[in-house]
Design goal:
alpha/beta; five-stranded parallel β-sheet; 11 helices; 33% helix; 2 domains
Length: 327
């Protein structure tokens, strides 16, 4: 959801309902205030100079984007009643304590907080599953974060490949990292997707992603800091359909004839008589051919058959089978 509630609790509740209807399994919010994220300072260090939020200070941006804590218990209750999982991203110890007080079941850690090892320790100590985004992180950064979580007794971890740009461009998503990350860290891996459209999500699923995170809004015309790179319900619903189709298409390693293919096996090529052949007549390249359908001998026997003699009269259009020839 992020900032897509645009300051309205009713809209936040509506987003949860729309997400459920669109096929989402979870809805995620963020638990912070401007003061838990930064300080109210306008000097150059706290100004945003480029990108979607150019011209804002950090404090002003977070003041526009945050989800009031007094809403969050009711948002969770709505999700629980609808049967959609509810989680949040905490940004400091006080937000973790608050989320514990409302009975949160699992946590998301944002890419920018991956380096906050004290926060990771505190979240890990709660013993609940953690989804950790890895945008902007080196392999060493990720290793240190994963080790910190595991050393604090929590093996319940999912990593998300992420390009921390808003919106992210396709050329910098590097989704091949997903299977590699899973192999290196022995955890499920997914994608935190800030790109436009669903091609990144579908491709990630083909590469083994187990979790897809997308920003979700009711309508991009509702002004807020995250609207421009969020999916509306119709787009999200189409992505879900595409992802489910991709999962089925990936399937499993399998060779041979599938159930659906069985009726078509007869249309493979095989060896047929293409002229009337008399008993004792020699098989030649003119009177036998490799053609469709597949009722005759396999084409691999064709060269051996050339020069053989027919054991009986054979009519044109008859498949060649064992017993019809002799040397």
């Amino acid at each position: 959801m992020s900032a897509n509630h645009a300051g309205s609790k009713d809209r936040a509740l509506e987003i949860i309902r729309a997400a459920k209807e669109a096929g989402a399994d979870c809805v995620k919010i963020q638990t912070y205030t401007p003061d838990t994220m930064t300080i109210d300072c306008g000097n150059e260090f706290f100004q945003i100079h480029d990108g979607t939020w150019k011209g804002e200070t950090l404090y002003r941006l977070y003041n526009k984007a945050y989800t009031p804590w007094e809403w969050q218990s009711d948002l969770k209750k709505e999700a629980d009643e609808l049967g959609i999982d509810f989680l949040s991203t905490p940004f400091d110890r006080s937000s973790v304590d608050f989320l514990e007080s409302i009975g949160i079941d699992f946590y998301k850690i944002a890419s920018f907080e991956l380096v906050d090892l004290p926060l990771l320790k505190y979240v890990a100590s709660k013993g609940k599953p953690i989804i950790l985004s890895t945008g902007m992180s080196t392999l060493a950064d990720i290793s240190e974060a994963v080790e910190t979580i595991r050393e604090n007794g929590n093996p319940q971890l999912v990593l998300l490949k992420c390009a921390s740009a808003y919106p992210a461009i396709t050329a910098e998503m590097n989704l091949k990292t997903i299977p590699n990350m899973s192999k290196v860290f022995h955890v499920p891996v997914g994608l935190s997707d800030h790109s436009m459209g669903s091609i990144g999500a579908v491709t990630a699923v083909v590469l083994g992603a187990k979790v897809i995170e997308k920003h979700f809004c009711l309508d991009r015309s509702i002004e807020n800091p995250d609207a421009s790179f969020s999916m509306n319900p119709g787009e999200f619903q189409q992505m879900v359909r595409d992802v489910r189709q991709a999962e089925m298409a990936v399937g499993q390693v399998r060779y041979g004839v599938t159930q659906q293919e069985e009726p078509n096996v007869v249309f493979k090529r095989s060896i047929f008589c293409v002229e009337d052949i008399k008993k004792g007549e020699v098989f030649t390249e003119r009177n036998i051919r490799i053609i469709r359908p597949g009722y005759g001998l396999a084409p691999k026997f064709y060269e051996q058959l050339i020069g053989m003699r027919a054991t009986d009269d054979i009519s044109k259009g008859t498949p060649v089978t064992f017993g019809m020839f002799m040397s």
